[in-house]
Design brief:
about 500 residues, mainly alpha, Growth Hormone, Chain: A, 3 domains, about 75% helix
């Protein structure tokens, strides 16, 4: 063990590995909740009488509150205490989930989903920032982030499996009630095992209320604008107004952060070239992944009539690939090679997996020849890239900024998810419509109509996978160009902050 590692070990909490277990349970709950209700939505819609025009709010209400309040949640965790914010987030999330499970009408369900998003915005950055300040020795940090990265990356796929299992065997309401179980376990661990390292700050700075309002409303409008575009069109008045207003508000937010004495988001956190590249890489990877989840779920269930459980099980190769990529490949190499040597190949491997998915067929699932190897490649690539990106994004930040740096990771994910769902869904829908128009003359019977619709849908999804692959290759280019850290994270001679370790190329 090196001297630097020894110095890091002084005074570390011996319970940190047990604490990691409960932090990961909380993170899994937050991530899977973005997808666990997707498969349950038809049943909830029928029971509560939710209209088709309103059904997207089951998803959007959560995303709006979560994405809009993340920066505020990260700064609250820094100012208030990460463990306290973590516990508060768990209690609030559990209460909101119980409310959603007991929903008697659509308004009650929508409100509970928004409330889940509010507490997720406090819980997610506090969980990651606890990890950041509890694990400082390079090799331990690599293992901890490998496990956390696998959970964060594969949680959405686990949500699809869990949603199908609960809906098919119990009731759609259990997609909400299950969070109470997760939260209770994590809360027990937070109280018994998690101990936040002593805070070095002697005073708490004032909260930038004006900045919080600008950031929260601006980010919420970004999420809403892209979500609304996926439901209507890019030229829809509300879509345009939302996105233009978001640009104005976020521009005003950046201007305010550069001038105020107590910024919500200190620009030093995002101005670093390597860290900014890590945030961009995370956002681009999520754009591609969220689109693939949507397309592949529809492909398996609508084109080939998979049951909800079978569709969820079909995603397991990706989860396995993520576990290998993050906990075996990335963990073993993150302290030996510069982070972009993991991020770039990870993006390329993931992109190749996405390219393979363009070979799906309306006639047969091609599961073992196309879907299975594609998901395995996607998981390996994304697990490797995501772990390295998150580690780099939170490495070397000042302890007082750990929460806000962690919040930026989650913000990249949320904004990326909203953009990916809207952008790729629009591209696929347009391609499907053009295919139907071009092949309308092929229809001679009712059977031909059904077959044509399926072929058109698969054609649109194939194009969506192609665009997603290009986005992943773009993530690799971004990592290669921006992430200019020249040594492995935690390697001898690697400075504590990327600002020192990564001079401009």
């Amino acid at each position: 063990m090196t001297n630097s590692e020894t110095s890091h070990d002084v005074g570390v909490d011996p319970r940190r590995w047990k604490a990691l277990t409960f932090i990961c349970i909380a993170q899994l709950m937050v991530v899977l909740d973005a997808t666990v209700v997707n498969i349950a939505l038809p049943d909830a819609k029928a029971e509560l009488g939710i209209s088709t025009s309103s059904q997207q709010w089951v998803i959007t209400a959560y995303s709006l509150a979560f994405g809009g309040l993340l920066l505020l949640g990260g700064r609250v965790a820094d100012a208030w205490g990460r463990r306290r914010a973590f516990i508060t987030g768990l209690i609030g999330f559990a209460a909101a989930s119980a409310l959603g499970g007991a929903a008697a009408n659509e308004a009650m369900l929508f409100g509970s989903r928004a409330l889940q998003g509010v507490f997720a915005a406090l819980l997610a950055p506090s969980a990651l920032s606890l990890l950041t300040v509890m694990f400082t020795a390079p090799k331990e940090r690599a293992r901890a982030f490998g496990i956390f990265g696998a959970i964060a990356g594969g949680g959405a796929a686990v949500g699809l499996l869990l949603g199908g299992l609960l809906t098919q065997t119990l009731d759609w309401r259990w997609t909400m009630y299950i969070n109470v179980v997760f939260a209770a376990i994590a809360l027990f661990g937070a109280i018994v095992e998690i101990k936040e390292p002593p805070r070095t700050e002697l005073h708490t700075t004032r909260m930038d209320v004006g900045g919080a309002v600008l950031a929260s409303v601006g980010l919420a409008l970004v999420v809403y604008g892209f979500s609304h575009a996926s439901e209507t069109s890019w030229s829809n008045t509300w879509t345009v107004v939302s996105l233009v207003a978001a640009v104005v508000l976020l521009g005003a937010f950046v201007l305010r952060q550069s001038r105020t004495a107590n910024p919500l988001l200190p620009l030093r956190v995002v101005a670093d070239r390597a860290r900014g590249g890590a945030y961009l890489t995370v956002g681009l990877s999520v754009i591609a992944m969220f689109g693939s989840f949507l397309f592949l779920t529809l492909y398996l269930q609508q084109a080939h009539h998979y049951s909800p459980i079978s569709a969820g099980v079909a995603f397991l190769p990706m989860v396995g690939g993520m576990l290998i990529g993050s906990t075996q490949i990335a963990v073993r190499l993150i302290t030996r090679v510069p982070p972009r040597f993991l991020m770039v190949p990870g993006a390329v491997v993931g992109g190749c997996g996405m390219l393979l998915l363009t070979q799906i067929s309306a006639d047969t699932t091609r599961y073992w020849s196309v879907v299975f190897p594609a998901l395995l490649l996607l998981g390996l690539g994304m697990g490797t890239m995501f772990m390295a990106s998150v580690n780099l994004a939170t490495h070397g930040v000042e302890p007082r900024d750990a929460g806000i740096a962690s919040a930026m990771v989650n913000t990249s994910q949320q904004v990326g998810g909203a953009i990916g769902t809207a952008l790729l869904n629009t591209i696929a829908a347009n391609a499907t419509a053009h295919f139907l128009t071009a092949h309308r003359s092929d229809v001679t019977s009712r059977h031909d109509v059904t077959r044509l619709v399926t072929r058109a849908m698969v054609h649109g999804q194939s194009l969506g996978f192609l665009v997603a692959a290009l986005v992943l290759f773009g993530a690799g280019i971004a990592a290669a160009v921006l992430v200019n850290v020249r040594s492995a994270i935690g390697a001898p001679g690697h400075a504590e902050t990327p600002e020192v370790a990564a001079p401009a190329a």
